[in-house]
Structure formats: C-alpha cells, structure tokens
Amino acid sequence: MKGVSDGAPRAIAQGVNGAGALCARMEDMDTIGVVDTMFARYDMGGEALDALKQCPGYGTRFTTIRRTVPGFKDLAVAAKKLIEEDGCRIVVALGMPGKEAVDKVCAHEASTGIMTAQLMTNTPILEVFVHEDESDDPAILASVFKNRSRDHAINAYFMLYEPEKLVARAGQGVRQGFGDAGPLKL
Amino acid sequence: MKGVSDGAPRAIAQGVNGAGALCARMEDMDTIGVVDTMFARYDMGGEALDALKQCPGYGTRFTTIRRTVPGFKDLAVAAKKLIEEDGCRIVVALGMPGKEAVDKVCAHEASTGIMTAQLMTNTPILEVFVHEDESDDPAILASVFKNRSRDHAINAYFMLYEPEKLVARAGQGVRQGFGDAGPLKL
Amino acid sequence: MKGVSDGAPRAIAQGVNGAGALCARMEDMDTIGVVDTMFARYDMGGEALDALKQCPGYGTRFTTIRRTVPGFKDLAVAAKKLIEEDGCRIVVALGMPGKEAVDKVCAHEASTGIMTAQLMTNTPILEVFVHEDESDDPAILASVFKNRSRDHAINAYFMLYEPEKLVARAGQGVRQGFGDAGPLKL
Amino acid sequence: MKGVSDGAPRAIAQGVNGAGALCARMEDMDTIGVVDTMFARYDMGGEALDALKQCPGYGTRFTTIRRTVPGFKDLAVAAKKLIEEDGCRIVVALGMPGKEAVDKVCAHEASTGIMTAQLMTNTPILEVFVHEDESDDPAILASVFKNRSRDHAINAYFMLYEPEKLVARAGQGVRQGFGDAGPLKL
Amino acid sequence: MKGVSDGAPRAIAQGVNGAGALCARMEDMDTIGVVDTMFARYDMGGEALDALKQCPGYGTRFTTIRRTVPGFKDLAVAAKKLIEEDGCRIVVALGMPGKEAVDKVCAHEASTGIMTAQLMTNTPILEVFVHEDESDDPAILASVFKNRSRDHAINAYFMLYEPEKLVARAGQGVRQGFGDAGPLKL
C-alpha cells in the first residue's frame, strides 16, 4: 500500500540526490547523510558537506546525500529515513535552537528524537546544534556554526573509517565549535 | 479480534472523509493528513486544508483527509492512525498550547508523542503549535494562527513534491507565523 | 510459559468484569475501557462509567470495563492491557496529580506513558487528569472532577461513533471541567 | 550467540534465587519479582519480601524472586529481565532518590524507564520510591521506608489476586508510607 | 544491503579491538563493553578497563572491548551496538556532563538514551557520569573520576558473576566516587 511504512528500505532511492545514492550502492560506496534546516541562520549542511568532500575516500569509498527540513524537530525522522531508505551508514544532523525559552524545550524534544532514531537503527546520528545565543557577536557565532558543523562531519568520517583516532583522544576534553577544554589539569 | 491493534492498515478507510481516502487509493492519489483540536481557539485545520487545496496537483496528484481530536495530547496517535490506517504520506498536526505552566508541560508531552509517531512510521508529521501567549493582541494572534497553519501545510507539500525548494532555503532563517529571521548578518 | 508477555491477547478475558468483556466479544459489541486510581480523592471512574451508560448504544453497540490501579503512574500499562488483552477500542484513563512539586514530575511521567501506550496500540487513550490544586474550594474541585470525567467519557463515545461532531467543533476553544474558552474573539 | 538478547526467556532461570523460580514454574506457581538497590539507605527489598510472605498463597500459589542493582537507574532493565527471563507476573521496584537536584533528574529518568518497561512487557511494575528528603527525622523516614515498601508489595498481591479490592477503594485518596488523604471532604 | 540495520549481529566483529572480541567468542569467553568520550577531561574508559583487568577471570572467563565516541549523547547507540553487534553481556558507559545549564539537559537526554538501550536489549548498561562541577578542586575531581569509573566497572563484574554480593549490600547506602553514605542511622 502506497505511503505506508513497511520497515523495508525502498528499492530505489528517492528525492534530492537520489541518483547519487543509487550510484553509491551500485558501486558499493558508503553513503554519509547530512540533514539540516531552513530555520537555522547559517548554511550548516553546506559546511558539513564541504568538510566531507575533503576527507580521504570521498567519491571512491563514500559519497554524501543531503536533505533539508523546516525545523530541528523534523531532523530525527529525516535522519532515520536517510538510514533506512537511503542506506546511510552514519548521519550528521544540524540545527540551530533559537533564543527563547520555548526553543530550549523544542531542542530537548529534537534531541530526544535523534537519540531514539539512533537506537532504532543501530546507526550513529551526530547531533550538531548551535544555540543562537552562544554568542552575541555575529562573527563569533558564524565561526561556531562553521567549525562545529565541519568538526562533527569529520567525526562522522573518523567513526566510520578511523575509530582508533577517537580512542586515542579519549578523555582529552575535545570540543567542537570553540577551542578544546583539554584534559583535567592537576 | 475486534478492536485489537494488529499493526496492519485496515482494508477499508474509516470515519470522517473515509470515502475520500478510499477514492484516493483507488485512483493512486497520495493523501495528506490534517489533524487539529477542539481545544484550539482558531480553525487551524481549516486553514491548512485550504492552503493545500491551492497547491499544484490537489485533486489529481494528492487529496486530503481531516480528523479533529479533543486536545493536542490526542494528536500523536491520531496522526499515526492517519498514516498507518488511512495511508497518509505526510501529516500536518495543529494545536494550541494554553497560557498556564501545566499547558507547557502538556505541550512537551504532545510534541514528544508526535516525534515518536514519526519515528515509528518513517513519515514526517509537521507539528504546528501556536502558543496562546505568543501575542496579547487577538488580531496578531489570529494572523499567527492563519499564517503558521498555511505555511506548514505548504511545507508538507514541498517535502513530498519539491524537496529541492527546501534545500535551496537551508540556513536562511525561514520562519512560519511571523516574518523570517533571515540568515545571520555579518 | 506462564506470566511471560507474548504480545498476543489472552484467549479469555480475566479479572474484574472479565465476564462482561467476554460477553461483549461474543455478541460483537465494542468495549470501552475505564481505568482510575485509589490515589485520587474522587470516584472519577464511577463518573465516567455513568456518563457512558447514558450514551446511545450502551449495552447494545458497546459495553464498558473498569480497572482500578494504585496511582496514576500505573494507568498506562493498565490501559494498554485493556486494549490488548481485553479488546477495548478506546480507553478513558483518570487520575489526580497531587499538590507537591514531585507530583508534577510524576504526572509528566504518567502522561508520557499514556502517550506511548497509545502509539504502541494505535488506540486513543483519553487522559483525564484533575490537579488537586486546580481549586482551593472543595465544591468547585468536586465539580471539576465530575464534569471533566464525564465530558471526556462522552468524547470517547464521539471519537468512536460520531467523529464528525468533533470536526464540527474544531478550533472552538472547547474545554472539559470548567467552561469553554470559546474561539478567539476578534 | 552468547550474551545477545533474543527476546526469548531463558530455558533455565539464572542467578540469585534462580532455583526457586525454576521450582515455581515446575509447580505452576506464579512468581512476584522484587528488585531494590545498594544505593538506598534502608533494606526496602527485605520489607517487600517479608510483606509478601505474609500474603495468602505464599509458597503455594506464588513465590518471590529478588534482585539487587547498584542504583535506581538500574531498576528498569532488571525488572524487565525479571518479567521476560524469570517469568514474573508483576514486579515491585524499590529505590531511594537522594537529596540533590541531580538526584531528582535521575529519579525522573529511572521512572521513565520503569514506565517503558511496563509497556514493553504488558506487566505492572510497581515503583516504590522514598525520597531521602521526605523527612529530616530518621525515625519518620524509616517508617516511610518500611510502610511504603510493604504497602506496595501488598498492592502487587491485590493486583494479581484480588483486583476487586482496588476497585472498591477507587477515588478514596489511598496513600502508601504516610496516612491516607481520604476522599475529598465536601 | 550495506549499512542498513537488520537487527542481526554481524558475523564478524568490526573496528577497534574487533579481533579480541572475535577471539572471545571463539573461546566462549564473555565480553564486557566499555565506551567513553573524547569530551570528558579524564580517561574514564582507561580506568574502567584497568579495573576489569584486575577482576577474577579476566582473559579466561571474560574479555573487554572498548569504543570511544565524541560526546556523551553518542554513548547510547554505541553501547547498544556493543551489545547487539559485538555480543557484550554488559556495558560500562562513561561520560562527563559539563558545567553549563545546557549540559545538564544534554546529560538528561544521554541518560534517557542509555535507559532505552538497556530496555531494547535486556542488558544492563552501567551509566558512569562525573559532573564537571562535582568539585572545584581538580585533585578531588580526578579522584572522583578514577574511583567512580573503577567502582562501576567492578559492579559490572559483580552483576555478571557474583550477584549475591549486590544482594548482600542492599539498602546499605553504597556510593561510587565519594565515600558510602551508609544505612539510615536510627
């Protein structure tokens, strides 16, 4: 029956960049998903895609696929569909919680959904949220948008292909967006 | 056994507009679901339906189906049933959280349910909430009800049929109800 | 194996009113479930049952079944069992959150459970909560208990048998317990 | 494959009191589960077990099984395993949230897990939490620990074997630990 | 299809220490999983692994496997994959919530995910969180990191192999990181 979820990935990838994902499967490349929002005030998805293009194996070992949704509460199901319908092995989900109190509650709901989507698919979805009030200075905020989006895209790459890089940095106070905190100073 | 959930969509669509949905299937049209509440103080569902009627392909490529429930905590299961029993490919769920503190908690519960329903069905449910205290001016509040309900109905259309429109607006600070925030100004 | 949940409804309804539910099935009547608590300070379940008895079709088209649990955090699983083991097509779940801060958190947990139970069964469970601090006047509070319990029981009836009544009242600011807020006044 | 959850109850009950549970099944007795924590500052599980021993049918109609986990966030999965692996028909889960703000958040997480475990198993898990700050007087607090643990153990017995006792007390303001609130006084 | 979750454990363990886990299965040893973060400012995973090495049966009855993820919100799915794909019978998940208000919300989301992962797998995941603001003194904080990580690793060992040790300490006010609170003093 049309439009009814049956849990099975569709035979043919659909929508934006669908052809690319189809190629990826035919050539046995992995696909890394990127999903962002119209609500954010910075092209977070564009940064993530650009960072992935500069990782080793782009275009040979893995390709990317992008979706954009209205707001960050739409990210979770979009990420899950990227995994289950488009075959993504990992997804980077990017959004910007606004300044108001209600935005903080919505961010919590969005995060909970992203958490559940990961558990339902056994696939990591890296949540990249930049809060609009992390800085009053637009230039600083822009750098946070840029750096955090790129850093987590690279984390996605490491998780798939070089997990030992993550183990080597365990407990080192690594951050994304601002500078690293570093390990506890004794 | 009667009334026991078996996970399978019913052979024949039931209830309000059921005949319409049945027709949609027979003619291979998509169905877009709209569910709203008696609790809200504005006919949000009516606006969403009207906006969808003015989208390309209404009556040929897609039709609509409407449900109304008592309050916004009843939206999630109603939306899930629209997807699984009535074959909707996307749902617009509209409600109005009240002014009291307890209403905010209820809104959070309602949102969590809508989030989970999406993940269980791999189908987007666009949550359209207008908080009763977004404006003290009834005229402004009415315009928010109207615009947000219509804007998200159109987003549902775009998500199904023109997803590239969403990608083109990624990170542009797009809003529904009030004016757009626009991208970060540097 | 005895006592292990296997997801299948039991062949024979058990417990309080079990015989009634069994009869309902044999005669192809629907069953509407009512579950309330010992914790509440008003017989909410009794009111709901009485209101349902006065709805058209009671005893011919539908019957009722009642459960009572210790507190409102026990409502969700009891409602789910009414649906999956006793074949209820809809459930009215009634409880009274207390006055303390911890009671508010518990109410949130109870509501989340009721939400999830609905999504797992594709069956509406109408949550009827009366907060002990909605009024300091016992007479007013009693009227809220009575009216809200009855109003939601009738909503359950409408959702099953006359859903068009709900659509007709969409966006009309309908309330249960106190008077209606009415539509936004412009 | 060893250690991988397969959803099936184990053929042979394991761990503490495993032999007892095995006997219970062979003799077709029910099993009531009791799980408590090392974190709590009172032997809550011991009280619950003792109260159950004094209920009619102990040792003939039902037996008990006990588990202890580190803290209350470990209760949910332990209770679910008691149901699915050890065949318990109901579980009493006992814990003590501490005094700090972070303890309150953890209590909420623990409760949410217990709620979900019930819904996944269609089996009641009675949550018995005594907050460390319910009284500054150790003697009063000890009586709350004792009474609430015992009262809920007896509730578990009633839910299984005498559910009509609960219906008879619906809306009567029944409490566990401190005295009953009683029905609303008009 | 590559990269799509199918619920089945992979035939061959992958990634960091994969060979060790494979050996464990071939020799019928249990595997205990340890997952920590780059975000934390102390090598929590290293402490847990070291404590497990000193438990009876290390290398004969059980072995260990380690993963490191970016932040604590990535722990839940990593732990679930350790259970379902790498066959772990129990997992120790270690992280450090930061000092800011948003970090507390994130910690709640991370905990909720870990809770759900346990319920989906019927396998305990011991959450070991050290809040960055538990002490202003780096030396004290370091001792909390060390002791809590090691204590919970040992709890994981006891839960698998000596559960009667936990029962013996029920209600004794046992803590990890700081000193025990002890039972209520009357």
Give a description of the structure.
5 copies of one chain form a homopentamer. By secondary structure, chain A is α/β, with parallel strands linked by helices. Chain A has one domain: Lumazine/riboflavin synthase (Rossmann fold). Helices cover 43% and strands 15% of the residues of chain A. In chain A, strands 2-1-3-4 form a 4-stranded parallel β-sheet, sandwiched between helices. In chain A, strand 3, helix 4 and strand 4 form a beta-alpha-beta unit. In chain A, helix 2 packs across helix 5 and helix 3 packs parallel to helix 4. The longest helix of chain A has 24 residues. Chain A starts with 17 loop residues before the first helix and ends in an 18-residue tail after the last helix. The N terminus of chain A is likely disordered. The interface between A and B is large, with 49 and 49 residues.
Secondary-structure arrangement, i.e. CATH architecture of chain A:
3-Layer(aba) Sandwich
Q: What is the share of helical residues of chain A?
A: 40-55%
Strand content of chain A: 5-15%
Helix/strand order of chain A: HEHEHEHEHH
Provide the number of structural domains of chain A.
Answer: 1
Q: What integer value in Å does the Rg of chain A equal?
A: 17 Å
Number of helices of chain A: 6
Short structural summary:
Five copies of one chain form a homopentamer. Chain A has helices at 18-26, 44-53, 75-84, 101-121, 138-161, 163-168; strands at 30-37, 62-69, 90-95, 125-129. Chain A has 186 residues and is α/β, with parallel strands linked by helices.
